Model the fold of this input.
Amino acid sequence: MTLAVQIRQPGGPEQLHIIDVQVGEPGPGEVRIRHHAIGLNFVDVYHRTGLYPVKMPAGIGMEAAGVIEAVGAGVTHLKAGDRAAYVGFPPGSYCEARVMPALGVCRLPDAISFETGAAMMLKGLTAQCLLRRTLPVEGLQAGDHIVFHAAAGGVGLIACQWAKALGLRLIATAGTDEKCKLALDNGAAHAINYTKEDFAARVKEITHGKGVKVVYDSVGKDTWEKSLDCLRPFGLMASFGNASGPVPPFAPGILAAKGSLYVTRQTLFTHIATREAMQAMADELFAVVESGKVKIHIAQRYPLAEVQQAHRDLEARKTTGSTILTLP
Ligand SMILES: NC(=O)c1ccc[n+]([C@@H]2O[C@H](COP(=O)([O-])OP(=O)(O)OC[C@H]3O[C@@H](n4cnc5c(N)ncnc54)[C@H](OP(=O)(O)O)[C@@H]3O)[C@@H](O)[C@H]2O)c1
Done:
């Protein structure tokens, strides 16, 4: 028997129950992995609250790292004993060991620790799919300004560093002055405390009235409207999350009025839908981390037994960088 976290109905952190489960043998296309560290992500909150519906009772968690114990028929890229890290469906990474589809599971380079692997797969691949693949019509060139909201968070701190490595001038927003400093220390060119300042006005000031080519927005409801005001004509509004609540419905005419803007709503899971795409993206992420250009900041560690507190802190905006759940 192994420990796992289960949600039985949508709700608050009190809905996270630790239970004993039996872990079986992997079927075709599956692996059994024993975790060494588990990554916490905001999407776990959406699964728990029901914003992103999952069939209950359900496991929870999309990211972890550990050692492969067994592989099912047809799995050729992994073998028992391999160090591995993953992002992938179905939710269920908050556990000691599990059976899961092999598609999102990658061999972890020796130079990358289990904790770092668990802290970077979902968040790092998201930063990558945004900065490398979610681009305005004119593309992004070195020296271009972009806006990245919640820049001191898990995805955010990785994006700050990666943007700098690409030569982009990232304008960070964050909820406290300390978080703004953290974003600047990690490569942001500017930082705006959006709880105190009008971020659209500041972005216009920084860009001498021009606006930016892209806004990467995971905050959602609270930042949507002002984010449109940060964009230059033909700019791209890249929405990828809803930490403050979902973006309300809007009339497309607003995009014309604000300069023929483009809007996209991205999910990493479209980008990593095949094994080949997943591996190619993971290889690029591993390379940028191994080069030292992107460092993974694990600012919080909670034992698996304290998972409820971990969720409370993430939702209360108390965390920075990546958070992991540790195992005995
Ligand atoms: N589409 C995708 O494929 C994809 C993949 C990964 C992540 N995401 C999204 O990217 C975002 C970041 O994920 P993460 O796991 O790295 O989380 P995170 O950024 O570490 O935490 C979320 C941050 O959002 C900010 N925030 C603003 N308003 C908030 C509110 N009302 N309640 C809670 N937080 C609020 C907070 O930073 P401040 O205090 O600085 O405002 C908070 O720290 C999430 O929205 C997530 O859903 C999307």
Q: What stands out?
A: The CA atoms of residues 213 and 235 lie 5 Å apart.
